Structures are given as C-alpha cells and as structure tokens.
Amino acid sequence: MLDLLAQTGLNAVYAASYISLIAVGLVLIFGVMGVINFAHGELYMAGAYSVVLFYSDFELPFMIAVAAGLLFVGCLGLLMERTLFRPLKDNPLGGLVASIGFLMIMQALASMGFGVRMEHIPPVTQHVIEFSERVRLPMARLFVIIAAVVLLSALWIFLKKTRFGWALRAAAQDPEAAALQGISINQTARIAMFIGAGLAGIAGALTAPLVSVNPHMGHSVIVTAFIVIIVGGVGSLEGAVIASVVYAIVHTFVTTFFDGVIADITGLSLMLLVLIVKPTGLFGSADRA
Amino acid sequence: MLSKIVKSGLTRRTFLQSTAAAAAASSLPRMALAQDKVIKIGFLAPLTGAVAAWGKPGLDGCEIWAERVNAAGGIKLSDGDYMVEFVGYDNEYDPAKARTGATKLIREDGVSFIMMLGGDTWPGVQPVADKTGMLFSTLLPSDLSPDTTTLIAPAEVHPIYNVTGVEWLAENKPELKTAVMCAQDDALGLPSVATYLAAFEAAGIEMLDEPLLFDPATTDFAPVVTKLIAGNPDIVCLDTCYSDYVHPIAEQLFQQGFKGQIISCTADFYDQMISKTSEEFMEGFVFQFPDFDDPALNADNINFSDPNGFYAEFNKRFPGQWGAVSWEYASIMDLWKAAAEKAGSAEPDAVITAMKDGQGKHAFGDADWWGEELFGIDNALVGDWPVVAIEGGKATIKEFRNIPAWYEKHGDLLVKHMQAYDQMWNQRG
C-alpha cells in the first residue's frame, strides 16, 4: 500500500508540473490582456509538433527541439497578439472568438502538415529511477518536473524582481494607471503573450514523447487548464499553481483508487464547489472574476 | 490577359480556334470515362481525430481493392460491367456528422452501399437507413438490433472475437491465473469489457479488480497503469483501447516495471510500441489482427485474394500505416461484390438477399450469418478468427479459433456480462 501511495504521489507531481505550466501561461495572458485564449491547447499542441519536427524528423537533440518549440510557440503568441488580440482589444468577446478561430486553423494546419494520426516520437531516454520494485520515476517525467519548477521559479523572479515584471503586474492590475505611469500596454501584452504561449509550448514539447501527439491533443488539456484557473482564481498566478497541484493530486489519486471517469467527475465537482463557496476562486479577486 | 496574348502576336481568331480545340480535346477523356458505368460506394468513417486509425487505413485499402477490381473488368451485373468508385466522408466519429454524411452520400453522390466503422456514429445514421433502405455495413456488430435490417456486420465481429485470444492464452499459458483490465468508457470499450470478462471467466482466469474505465480524453496514463498493476496481475488486458491509448499504456507498463502478459484487441503500429519499450517487453503480446504477409493467410480456406500482395502494395503506398482495418473494408467489398454479381443488381434489397443466401465467404474462412441471440438479428458473419502474438518483433498468427464454437459452450456468460454492462441489443439506448 505504501508503494502504491508513493507511486501515485509521483504520478501526481508529474501531472501537477505540466498542468501548472499550461495554466500559468493561460492565466498570464488573461491577467495582462483580459483575453480568454481558447487556442491555448493548440499552443501546447504546436510545442509537441515542434519536437516531432526537430527531434523525430530532423533528428536534432531533444533539448534543442524543446528550445525550438519554446521559441516557435512564443513567436506564435506574438503573432496572435499582433494580428488577433490587439485589433480586437476594444471588443469584449473579440479575442475569445478570434482565439476559437485560431484554434481551428492550428488544428487544420497540423492535420495538413503532419497527418491525422498519432505521431511516433522515439523515447528520449528509457532510464528509470527505481525507488523500489513498485515505485519508479522515468527520467523523461523527471525532466518535466524539473523544467516546471525551474521555469515557474524563473517566472516568479521575473515578475517580482525585474522592471518588466513590475510593468506586467501593473498592467494586469490597472492598465490605465499603468499607461499613465509610462508603461507601454502593447509591450507588456507582447511580453505576456510570448511568455504565456512559450510556457504552453514548452509543456507540449517536454511531454511530447510521453503522450499521443495528434492535431486534437490540445482539447483535453485546455479543459483541464480552465478547471484549474477557475479553481485557483481567474487572473491569479499563485492560484493557478496551487490549483494545479490540488487538481493533479485529486485526479490522480481518484483515478488510482476508483477510476478515471469518477476522477473527471470529482475534478468538475471540485470546480463547482469552489464556484459555489468562493466564486472568485481560491486566490482570485472580485474585479477579475 | 487577353490583350497581352493578342499583343504577343496571336490573332484573336487563332486564339479562339485554339481555345475551342483545347476545350474539345479536354472533354474527350470525360466522354470516354462516361462510357464506363460506375457504381459508387460510400465510405463513412472517421478519417481524422482520435479514431482515424480505424477509418483512414480502411479507405486506403479500398482504393487498392478498387484498382484491382477495375483492372479485372469491374463488377459484372445483369445490365453490364461497372467500374467501382469510393466516395469518402469524414464523420470524425461524431453521430451528427455521420448522419449528414450518410444523407450526402445517398442524395448527392448516389452511392449503392455505405461502409461504416459504426459504434458511437451508428445512432446518428440509423434514421437515415430506416428512411432510405440503404444497405450499410459496420465493423461493430454491437450496432445490430432487430430494427437494423439493412445493417450488416460481415467482416468483424467486434468484440466477440476477443474470446479467441483469451481462450488461446488459457490453453497455451496455463500458469496465467489472474487478470486486470482497462478501457475507455464508450461504445467501443464497454461491449469489449463485457466480452473479455466472459472470456476470462470461461477460461478460469480470476479478475483481480473491476475493469478500470477512463475518459476518452485521458492523456496521462500513469495513474491508470499504477492502479492496474498494483495487485501484481499475471495478465493486463487493454480491451479495445484506441491505438492512441494502447501505445502510452504499454509504455507506462514498461516504465512501471510490469513483466507479465499483455493482451489487447489491437496493436496497431506495434513496431512503434517496440521502439518505445523493447522487443523483449513486447514478446508474446497477444492481439487479434494479423499482418497480411503472414504465411498462414495463404491457406486454402482464406477468402481474401492475394493477402500478401495486398499487404505489400499497401505498405508500398502507405509506409508504416498498416493497421487493424486496412483489409477489413476491402474484405467487405469482396462480399458485397460477390452478392451484387449473384443478384445481378446493386439494389440494397437484392444484394442483402443474395449475400445472406447460404454461408458467407468471410476473409478468414467460410462463415455463417449469426447473432440473433446476442444482437437480435442474424446479420453478423461469424466463423474463425486469428489469434496473433508478437514474436521476435513481428506479428505472427498462432492459430485460428472458431467463435460460434466458443459461444456454444460459454454463450450464457457472454450474455450475462453484456447484460451487466447494458450492452445487449434490447438494453442499448
């Protein structure tokens, strides 16, 4: 039983890692730009396909493929900001609708470019850390955990300790006041979009060898991310991280001790409970809810 | 544009004469083609999305089949020879899209027969079938009911043939005593769960736990696998999981240190699974779908024309795409062609009457129209089915086993478990 609990705990840590990377990116974009980016799952998908292209097809080293994924998806974020979100920033629903359109375009492009079926990605490593016969952590999963901790720590330092970070937070709290202080709202939007998209891209790239990479893989991820940001509080980065951990623990343990369908129901029930008890989410503020 | 052409020295009269000649010439091939009478066959299956692996390779196989048949003179009906042409429609495994596709194929394309994967998409199509009387085929006889008089399941008796794999395992590896199972919670997964439960019970293999059902949207299978192997089972059964699930589950089993037997309905693209795990880990993996280069398919009882050549041609055109359904829709077309030629007509009523007149030529041997007890109608063509195991990195047919013979002995168990999962024809919504 102890082994089962330990293995389930490791599974939960991995799940929390990649979910938090995606959710924090989604929250950052919403926080700074006020846009619900429905295409965030497709940015995750684009990161995974970067690994298919650079690692599987071009046989470049995995970490270079991951870096390429980060840059490529970050640039996709910049493209979305400039061509979709900025022109529609005065339309409350414009960004949301445009992101749904972008989602469909991304899926169609992936289908045209790579085909519709699951892509095969050779394993990066088959090394497994064995804590006991029944408690094992594959190195590929450890990479994701380490990357999430490093990247989210770096983001926290960036937001709390740098001028750009302060500007981002100021723009998120009160865009007009920030603009009056000389902060460029367009520039903060670009930075937020690059970082938010890049986080989704790197999550997709790092997990690509561990999941089924296909044009529709973003769908289930975005559903989970929305549950997490609603539980954590829309607009709260800390809330997104903590909610990711809570959701991953609940979902993983319920799957292991009951089944996957009940785990999904439990995850949604958790969201409903939070909405009833604290509609702004665990760490959300009323003005963003 | 016209002014530029005229300035280049071409007179207006010469230009018009050339254009008329070109137009006349371009119409010639069409006139020649129009002399060939064509029968259109609808292919209504998922060509994109998570279930595309059980649609797209089937359409690819049909195109090869059509080329072979057309090269041999086409389909010979009472009023002449007809070339055959497939019209594909991607239903994305969505019932509403399947309904739209069925209507389009019948009304706009004028097809004579529609092949489907079935499952979740059949309820969307059934009203169209009822209204038009069109003949449909499904790979999933669990779609059959007494009301589906124009629906046949002539190639695959999913999931009933899964009993043959379990029966073979029990006889050849009697040391395997316990099993666990996981499946996606949908119209493909649940009847298969009931079938495997019946097969394990008939074989005297104990289930250590209730089947673990997961949402089809699941992406991380580590928790599923952790639960599956927690009780140290001898056998892990992957039910009829889609290939998008079979691969990550097998990889997780490998990474979490499972060393027992794996049985699954399918193992599409198993070479990729070997690459993600190891040849040693995949050795002995039992499933139900052979590669058609298997020498066992050259036996006299096999009713599939040149299986080895078909497999070679498929892999030449679509490298690495061979899967469970690559041959199945083509084998349905063999049956349909034989019935249409026997009836001398492509009319659905005439074809189905001719098709069900006596034994059917199933790809894996002569078979009977069967299923009234289980599906409420004898519209499934059932006989032998192969048990396949991976040996030395290659799928190998171990044996053909007879499904009705198993049902004769253990049918009550199958009915019991089908009822428990609400999968009998009179229980399904």
Q: What does this entry show, briefly?
A:
With 289 residues, chain A is mainly alpha-helical. Chain A has 11 helices and 2 strands, in the order ααααββααααααα.
Description:
The complex is a heterodimer of chains A (289) and B (429). By secondary structure, chain A is mostly helical. Chain A is built from eleven helices and two strands; from the N terminus they run H-H-H-H-E-E-H-H-H-H-H-H-H. Chain A has one domain. Chain A has helices at residues 2-33, 40-57, 62-85, 94-114, 139-161, 163-173, 175-180, 185-207, 218-232, 237-257, 260-277, and strands at 128-132, 135-138. In chain A, strands 1-2 form a two-stranded antiparallel ribbon. In chain A, a hairpin with a 2-residue loop joins strand 1 and strand 2. Chain B is of the alpha/beta class and 429 residues long. Chain B has three domains: 2-34, no CATH class; 36-158 and 296-383, 3-Layer(aba) Sandwich (Rossmann fold); 162-293 and 388-420, Response regulator (Rossmann fold). In chain B, a hairpin with a 2-residue loop joins strand 13 (360-362) and strand 14. Chain B is globular, with a radius of gyration of 24 Å. Chain B starts with a helix and ends in a 9-residue tail after the last helix. Chain A binds chain B through residues 4, 7-8, 11-12, 14-15, 111, 116-118, 120, 122-123, 126, 128, 130, 133-134, 136, 138, 141, 210-212, 214-217, 219-221, 223, 251-253, 255-257, 259-261, 263-264, and chain B through 47-50, 52-53, 56, 185, 210, 212-215, 217-220, 222-224, 226-227, 229-230, 243-245, 247-248, 251, 255-257, 269, 272, 275-276, 278, 321. Chain A: GO terms for molecular function: transmembrane transporter activity.
